Amino acid sequence: MSTATTTPAPSRGALTDRLLGRNPQRRVLYLLLGLVVLFSAVRVISGEQALTSSSTFSAALLLAVPLALVALGGLFSERAGVVNIGLEGMMILGTWGAGWAGYQWGWTGALIGGAVFGAAGGLVHAIATVTFGVDHVVSGVAINILAEGVVRFLSELLYTDNAAGGGVTQSPPLSSRPPSFSLPVLSSGPDLLGDLEGKHWFLLSDVAGLLRGLTNGVGVLTVLAVLLIPASYLVLWRTAFGLRLRSCGENPAAADSLGVPVYRLKYIAVIISGALAGLGGVFLVFIATIYREGQTGGRGFIGLAALIFGNWRPGGLAAGAGLFGFADALQLRSATAVVALLLLIAVLLAAVAVWQALRGKRTQAVLAAVFAAAALVAFLTVDELPEGIVSFTPHLTTLLVLSLASQRLRMPKADGLVYRRGEH
Amino acid sequence: MTLLRRTGLALLAPVLAIVVALAISALVITLIGENPFTAVRVMFDFGDTPSQQTQAMVVVLNRAVPLFLAGLAVSVAFRMGLFNIGVEGQYRLATILAAAVGAAVALPGPLHVLLIVVVAMAVGAIWAGIVALLKVTRGVSEVISSIMLNFIALGTASFLLTGPLRGSEPGASIITTADVPESGWFPGLNGVFSVLGLAEPRTELYGFLLVAVVVGVVVSVLIKRTRFGFDLRASGLSPSAATASGVDARGMVIKTMLISGAIAGLIGLPDLLGDQHNYGTEFTSGLGFLGIAVALLGRNTPVGIALGALLFGFLDRAAIPLQFADIPASVVTIIQGTIVLSVVIANEVARRLTRRQAERGNAVAPPSTGDGSTGGGQGPGGGPPPDDGPGSATGPGLTTAQPQGAGR
Amino acid sequence: SDEDDSASGGSSESSSASGDLRIGLAYDTGGRGDKSFNDSAYAGVEAAIASLGGEVQELSPNDDASNRPELLTQLAEQGFDPVIAVGFAYGDIISDIAADFPDTTFAIIDSTGVDLGEGNVTGLQFAANEGSFLAGVAAALKSTTNYVGFVGGVETPLIQSFEAGFAAGAEAAKPGITVDVKYISPAGDFSGFSDPARGQIVAQGIFDAGADIVYHAAGGSGTGVFEAAAASGKRAIGVDSDQYQTVDDPAQQAVIMTSMLKRVDNAVEAFITDFSEGNVEGGTDITNDLETEGVGLSYSGGFIDDIKTQIDEFAQQIIDGEIEVPTAP
Amino acid sequence: MNESAPLAVELRGITKRFPGVVANKDIELRVRRGEVHAIVGENGAGKSTLMKTLYGMHRPDEGEILLDGTAVTFKSPADAIAAGIGMVHQHFMLADNFTVLENVVLGSEPTKGGRLDRAEARRRIREISDRYALGLDPDTLVEDLGVGDRQRVEIAKVLYRGATTLILDEPTAVLVPQEVDELFGNLAELKREGLTVIFISHKLDEVRKVADSITVIRRGTTVGEADPRTTTAKQLAEMMVGAELPTPQTRTSTVRDTPVLQLRGVTVATVGGRPAVDDVSLTVREGEVVGIAGVEGNGQAELVDAIMGLRPLAAGSIVLGADDIAGWSTRRRREQGLGFIPEDRHRQGMLLEAPLWENRILGHQTRPPAVKGAFIDRKGARADTERIMRDYDVRAPGPDTLAVALSGGNQQKLIVGREMSARPRLLIAAHPTRGVDVGAQSVIWELLKDARAEGMGIVLVSADLDELIGLSDTLHVMLRGALVATLDPASLTPEELGGHMTGARDTTVGAA
Ligand SMILES: Nc1ncnc2c1ncn2[C@@H]1O[C@H](COP(=O)(O)OP(=O)(O)OP(=O)(O)O)[C@@H](O)[C@H]1O
Ligand SMILES: Nc1ncnc2c1ncn2[C@@H]1O[C@H](COP(=O)(O)OP(=O)(O)OP(=O)(O)O)[C@@H](O)[C@H]1O
Ligand SMILES: [Mg+2]
Ligand SMILES: [Mg+2]
């Protein structure tokens, strides 16, 4: 036997690795608890109720779900080795499909319509990249451009002089609304969590806010999306199909040599990818109850970022989408709450500084301490940030977390490489 | 192989692409009940009077200049396997700061312009440098960081515009920076038309066209002919081999992003120095993203990018005559997407046909002529195509022209 | 392109014999069918044509709207007169073109024609702050929680004048009332006008904080505001057109208490009529305000019929100059 | 053997063309059931192509395939697998980020209720592993395995699919003798179970030892069959290339007194664990070849990287001539006289998608003839590439050919030529003849010997023990990152050396 070194457990994503070492479940719990306590403390000190209100959390959910759906779409495609910059375009197609099917056949129609249109975008991407071997980025960019033109054109074709309403930039409204759910007693009816939240007690009210935010008036697609995350994990990592699909992204030549239908699997993966991105679009249509041009607002790209943030894993991308969604919700809710966030950052950075100092890394410690001090000063002196600055809170947060967490990201090995049988 | 057949193969890709794009566009136009032939005629209708015709050319060129610069900025990074999706933010921030500096100082003409150009390039380079720095020190994927920095640039520009750099009076509907005084304007090129004996167009041809040409030539020489360019391309083709050959991978990432960002900083200047003279809420946005398409269309070579930019400029202009002919402008967007897709697909098909051809003959054909088939395995950018130097990408039998090279 | 069909080249064939009114209409981004002021402008043109005869050529800008100057140029060059530019975004380019075509009459909506220094541009302006003032009055009078909100699409001066009027109106009707103001995106980022999801989230935040009526000036994001109102059983105020009539969705219709009307159609129609009668002066601004009924409130659905007299009182005070409505917050 | 029994595999008149190359031309191959059948031939002779045809990876342009006497056509490897054929590729076909289990079951997974049945898969892999003594742990990540284990994973993949005919394409190229012996033990096991093995190798002694019959291929066609019991290695080599079997034997010592490279306490840390290179000290003098032996994964690669400046030092010094170069960049080291033949030519030695003349520049970007000042000298680079192609027998159409179009041996010769042309003071040669045919091998050995005679210092890392023993003046053995023995190659057998490498022998430290 040659050397078989004992290896550490596979990386679980940038953030978790850095913060938790390698012993998950329990540490995740500790981490979450720590964060809740911290948030609670910051809320009490700053008096910014929005920081942990159920309203913020439910907004965060609304903002995170489409990102998570798109990122899941990216997951399927990139796990099968096809880079998907075209997610934005597929999402755009999804919004249009949902609007078009939705005004005729209601919310179920919208669900299917959006998925089908998104999948059609995926199909184009698959034809270009898999069959014709076009560079994945090229094809994705082309699809983004194409999608914009196609939806505008279709609207022009179908909505001009449409009795049901609509126009070149929007569809008629959905003919039925998707159902939404609340936890009985706790977050609806007597609304015990709501009561608790209203008390503004330390910790208890914050937890209540979190729980109520995630359980009150949750749309059907949100439920579906949340289920899709573990489901994708199970499909990709626990089934034969998933193994084969992932093998196309790791070493397609090896898969091919074992009779795995690489091309077919890539097709399936990219089409699923498009359908999921389309569902992300459907989600936006459900909120608005219509299709509206420009509705996606670059969410396809953010979803892609969430995917990379999450190290090409379902749990990780959900965390990425959640982080972004929360920061975005906060900035949309209250510009002053964003200032309170500075206090939070100051505390976290101070902790990092202490930790780095203990590990003997002086430069990092000093750097973190300086930034902590700066954040604290900013918190104490600034009352409200200008709209321009507040607007990029989520982007800056994501970037900060990424650059503070250690980077052990690992993309699928053959991701983005054009595979042609016999030409590896 | 006969010369005829060789030429045929070389022309195959562009012809195929054009045929496919035309076919799809024709289908789309027919679908809305219009005549595709009318559409084509209208698109090539540059007007009736000589001055209208030159004006149409000016419109196309003025649109192509920023697109060319955007494509160039993207392609430099692509060449070493970096996907600079952040060109958008880089040029927006560069333009507003350059406009502010330009408005704040008074210098003699050329110096004033030079200062503005230098500021724009510096800001673009710094903004792109953040991406590079995060990548080499913290390992943050350049795709994420540049997407995020785009939004941050947008927000920052908005803050600057509504706050410290606001130059327009409080009541104005459009918020702009203060105007750059005339000494900071870039003179137009309409003199050229009279020299050539053509009618004077209504608006000025951007003098920045010359700068763009110079930048294009410099970048071309830099990438193809210099040691630095070799290191850059080597890093794109195989990061590990480049490192083993003595290329400092981290330094290369930083230098490349700085160059890419500096070029990106120029994108807004044709409009700023040639027409608008200030940066405002209505300043053209989205050029960075179009630049990606143009770079890919031009297969990351300066000449290709120039052709791609001209094509986009042409299509963009065509949107107006099409509307006069009752064809919706969205058709142009569809045509743009279709062209990008069909050009790249056609390249691929032609590549295969060429190979099969070579198989029957006895020339040694390369297994790949580049586009997209490379891919260094790092970053989703895939790999940049190899050098397009004479005969480098084609075998001895096919040295006349690359099948992908011409005709876009 | 050999045929020499100069002036009428490429224009629509519906050239009517009844009059030689050839109107050029250059839209803001989105173009016709936006269910907003592009459509409103078109409605005005249509109404004018219906009574005066003539034809219209519409042009929409490209995606990044970089070809606005060309749109106006082409229309003027092809002999369309008057040429109407829809949206203040044409404000910084229209003067150059107007100078090049001194014989063509131009109009620009939402921007001034005075400051340009050209004698052939008329600004069609709207006192949106005055209309918004009435919306503020209505909201304040109808609010039971003493808490109302405003959702702006993009933080531009134009939208800020809506905000200013609304806040002033609310304060005038009910001193001390809370007015919660939020914008979806900052200046320069126009996504705020087309992101209903964010509109919903922002409005929901205001409702959750205690507001019971929210006024929006957020363009396409407005449906999100209505949706938030519907979801929380609260009220919303529409903008530009009578959105009670245009939303197509009964659930949303039920929450639209009133809309701040901005009669772009009337203004455009009046302008064309003036033009055909040779009454356009140029280099002037036509301000459409409460007095000219260029702005106002809608009463569809009958939600605010009971406070009509109070609203009218305030309107009269504004017309009489007793109340000076601010244009900036 | 029973002549009348149908042959397990028979290939008749197989022809396969690639763009510009006829890889196989009218090839005949006859393999009897239950035998180990070897195929030998030069680099690029078409062995792998032939085997890929048999494995359904591509279809022959002409000719037919018969299994047990009946003609078959394979559309894909899946068909070949179904027909009982399995192949272990020359370049491993493994997903590094997958576990052994996932790699083995991929494509024919046991499932239970739609789920991948890992328990069942684990059981079956253990069973195969035990039965053929493969010693595999199903749950290890492949990227953590050494080459020997990877090889066994490949074999397990094939056995898992119930193959009755195994194709092994150059399985021993990367193995040390002990591992080769283990592999041959495995093969014997397979043979005993009645399986047929087709075996490709450049190591003719090995072939003679293990094969029951041999087919020789030259330039795409069958030259003939040989009986391993009656044919000598020399005769085989002559059949292959018409040349004599080369030996790596060095002539007289050329070692001078001046040291060119001195390593003192060189230590390279790995992420987390113990050092990859542990306090290594050694000296290379002018005209001396210092060999480094070791089972793959014992720190040789890291040591090479450290000398080249591709990996930071945790401790120690590296002195080239009189300069401590530990703080120097890779480029400066190369400029000051370090030459480098990397272990993995595709990863570190070449730009596959670039033409040969650009590959000539690689690693020599700061020196003529490839560059003039800050600019690339295209003409100079082309001319010099042509010279290298002539002098080093690189077979390619011209300097504008893409590197990827060359066979491995020719790529290696280009790299050797390139590095030699710069006349380095010290050459690091990592596996310089790996996967290279006998003809090219002897060329490379001669080149190394000449360079040594001219006073070049050489650090030779190799898995080929004959090469190590034959070329080295001094031989160090590396085990777990440390130098555990210094041996005199003059009186050393490969078996003894292998013993040191695996730590089985007492490490008697000789004079440095
Ligand atoms: N068996 C399961 N049932 C339901 N949900 C699961 C199951 N396994 C994982 N999940 C969910 O799917 C997500 C998978 O994310 P991720 O890929 O990060 O998982 P992991 O725990 O790192 O996987 P592994 O155990 O393979 O390392 C997790 O968030 C988890 O909530
Ligand atoms: N996919 C391919 N495309 C083009 N040429 C190929 C391809 N595969 C093999 N060749 C060429 O066919 C010839 C035979 O290659 P093959 O790999 O079969 O040789 P080999 O005998 O296995 O050599 P080695 O001992 O180096 O492995 C070579 O010239 C090679 O370059
Ligand atoms: Mg997992
Ligand atoms: Mg081989």
TrEMBL record, chain A:
Its main location: membrane. It is found in: Cell membrane. GO terms for cellular component: plasma membrane. One of its GO terms (molecular function) is transmembrane transporter activity. The chain crosses the membrane at residues 28-45, 57-76, 83-103, 109-134, 218-237, 267-289, 301-326, 338-358, 365-382. It is a multi-pass membrane protein. It holds the Pfam family BPD_transp_2. Keywords: Cell membrane, Membrane, Sugar transport, Transmembrane, Transmembrane helix, Transport. InterPro entries: ABC_transp_permease. It comes from the Bacteria. PANTHER family: GUANOSINE ABC TRANSPORTER PERMEASE PROTEIN NUPQ, SUGAR ABC TRANSPORTER INTEGRAL MEMBRANE PROTEIN-RELATED. This is ABC transporter permease.
Automatic annotation (TrEMBL), chain B:
CDD domains: TM_PBP1_transp_TpRbsC_like. The chain crosses the membrane at residues 9-33, 53-78, 90-107, 113-136, 143-161, 205-223, 287-315, 327-346. GO terms for molecular function: transmembrane transporter activity. Keywords: Cell membrane, Membrane, Sugar transport, Transmembrane, Transmembrane helix, Transport. It is found in: Cell membrane. Pfam families: BPD_transp_2. Residues 399-408 have a biased composition (Polar residues). Residues 357-408 are annotated as: Disordered. It is a multi-pass membrane protein. GO terms for cellular component: plasma membrane. Residues 372-381 have a biased composition (Gly residues). Its main location: membrane. This is ABC transporter permease.
Automatic annotation (TrEMBL), chain D:
Residues 9-244, 261-505 form the ABC transporter domain. PROSITE patterns: ABC_TRANSPORTER_1 (PS00211), ABC_TRANSPORTER_2 (PS50893). The keyword ATP-binding applies. Gene3D superfamilies: P-loop containing nucleotide triphosphate hydrolases (3.40.50.300). InterPro entries: AAA+_ATPase (IPR003593), ABC_carbohydrate_import_ATPase (IPR050107), ABC_transporter-like_ATP-bd (IPR003439), ABC_transporter-like_CS (IPR017871), P-loop_NTPase (IPR027417). Keywords: ATP-binding, Cell membrane, Membrane, Nucleotide-binding, Repeat, Sugar transport, Translocase, Transport. GO terms for molecular function: ATP binding; ATP hydrolysis activity. It is a peripheral membrane protein. Its main location: membrane. One of its GO terms (cellular component) is plasma membrane. It is found in: Cell membrane. The keyword tRNA-binding does not apply. This is Heme ABC transporter ATP-binding protein.
